[in-house]
Design goal:
Elements (H helix, E strand, L loop, with lengths): L1 E2 L2 E2 L2 E4 L3 E6 L7 E6 L4 E6 L4 E6 L5 E6 L5 E6 L4 E6 L4 E7 L4 E6 L5 E6 L4 E6 L4 E7 L4 E6 L5 E6 L4 E6 L4 E6 L5 E6 L5 E6 L6 E8 L4 E10 L1 E6 L5 E9 L2 E10 L4 E7 L6 E4 L2
Antiparallel strand pairs: 1-2, 3-28, 4-5, 5-6, 6-7, 8-9, 9-10, 10-11, 12-13, 13-14, 14-15, 16-17, 17-18, 18-19, 20-21, 21-22, 22-23, 24-25, 25-26, 26-27
């Protein structure tokens, strides 16, 4: 789909997977996919769409994030309360970092120096120093944190607390929550635009009802718009130019979703609904 004369590639994955793209040197990008029930990570060469290797020895891997240099991939093991560090040159686990209970969401700051892990079972966020692979801080947040995102400046981290219907805003200098955004409805995923001015949060909502996306003004930490989307929205991603937001509507066990909603960020309206596979959960957009 073409917007503002730039081509964006949208990657969607099923309920048992989360995906990130890694570009290594001059090689084609690789996709790292966490296979929750298989306890491994599939590595796909995006030039050929072939699985080139499988990284084993994980435990219910859920979230995945890559550092800006493309040299390291970080995977949350929700079954063993730790994070695996994968070297992209060898596709081997080179370190394991113990965090808190049920780690789910994970993100890396723009400098590649810190990793932030949302620990659903402990109601906190672990801060990992990537130079030492050690936890340097643990930040209490709301109940059942799932999604986590860092702003482009690396100064703020946004945590979606599904159980308390809030977003916690962490100051990365002090590792303290400096603001709490209320008025959400089972928030699951969160993404920040490239300007750092808006955060988009998927509201999982309630059983078999359409969900919404809340638009947060990061200057005031307030919800400025609520956009209806499909049933049980999960993953969310923003195009690099900030003009569109894509939302994976996961659905429910008895009514699985099969769509992705496209939101125009100027009007905050859904401008397209794209049919995809069953129960989409993750969405990523390449530059």
């Amino acid at each position: 789909m073409i917007h503002n004369k730039k081509l964006y590639s949208i990657a969607l994955v099923s309920i048992a997977m989360t995906l990130v793209l890694v570009s290594i040197a001059d090689a084609a990008p690789f996709a790292y996919i966490t296979n929750l029930d298989s306890n491994n990570v599939s590595v796909i060469n995006t030039a050929t769409n072939n699985v080139t290797t499988t990284v084993s020895g994980l435990n219910n891997p859920y979230g995945v994030a890559v550092n800006p240099a493309g040299t390291k991939v970080y995977v949350t093991n929700s079954g063993s309360n730790n994070v695996s560090v994968i070297d992209t040159a060898t596709n081997m686990v080179t370190a394991t970092v113990l965090v808190e209970t049920n780690p789910y969401g994970i993100t890396v700051n723009p400098a590649g120096t810190k990793v932030y892990v949302a620990n659903k079972g402990s109601n906190n966020v672990s801060v990992i120093d990537t130079a030492t692979n050690m936890v340097t801080a643990t930040v209490p947040v709301g109940t059942n944190p799932y999604g986590v995102a860092v702003n482009p400046a690396g100064t703020k981290v946004y945590v979606a607390n599904k159980g308390s219907n809030t977003i916690s805003v962490i100051d990365t200098t002090t590792n303290m929550v400096t603001a709490t955004v209320n008025g959400l409805n089972n928030p699951y995923g969160v993404a920040v635009n490239s300007a750092g001015t808006k955060a988009y949060v998927t509201n999982f909502n309630t059983y078999l009802k359409d969900g919404t996306v809340s638009v947060i003004d990061t200057a005031t930490n307030s919800v400025t718009a609520i956009v209806p989307v499909g049933i049980d929205p999960n993953g969310v991603a923003i195009t690099p130019d900030g003009s569109k937001v894509y939302v994976a509507n996961n659905g429910h066990e008895y009514l699985p979703g099969k769509t992705v909603s496209e939101i125009d960020t100027v009007t905050n309206n859904v401008t397209a609904t794209v049919n995809v596979g069953t129960a989409p959960i993750g969405v990523a957009i390449t530059p």
